[in-house]
Design brief:
The chain is an all-alpha fold. Helices cover about 55% and strands about 0% of the residues. The chain has a domain at about 20-55. It has one helix spanning about 15-55. The relative contact order is 0.06.
């Protein structure tokens, strides 16, 4: 035992099938949540940029002088 820590030098790390699958599932859920959060932060600005690029620029409205009135 490492003096004063209460931790043994030789520790056993067996989780068993239930603990292992639960740990893997929690890790994958964390990675998926972080990935979705990152994509969500990027999606809205990209959506606005694509909409602005697709929208044709409209001509300014004609004034009464331009129409000859």
């Amino acid at each position: 035992m490492i003096y004063g820590t209460g931790i043994g030098i030789c520790t056993l790390a067996y989780l068993g099938p239930g603990g292992l699958l639960g740990s893997i599932g929690a890790f994958l859920a964390l990675v998926g949540a972080l990935l979705l959060a990152f994509l969500g932060l990027l999606w809205y600005p990209l959506k606005r940029l694509l909409a602005a690029m697709r929208k044709p620029r409209s001509a300014p409205p004609e004034s009464a002088e331009d129409r000859g009135a």
